[in-house]
Amino acid sequence: MARLTPAQRIARAQAEIARAKAAQRSLETGQKVVIGAALLAEARENREVRKLLIQVLTTRVTRDADTSRIAALLAELNALP
Length: 81
Fold this sequence. Notes:
Blueprint: H1 6-45, H2 47-60, H3 64-79
Helix pairs in contact: 1-2, 2-3
């Protein structure tokens, strides 16, 4: 096997770091999806959780694109008894 030049070793290490970061982001995204789904399911059944989730979403979600994305969900949650 041919020896790698220092530049090739650096490039390989950078590629490994990029793969590790991508894997970490993928894991975190999956965790967010699972946690979000569980929280939404609970909010649809539990009035106290629903009130808390509505409060958190209305105070923490501030970007226009994000508020537009969750508008229908907030309407659904607010309409529940």
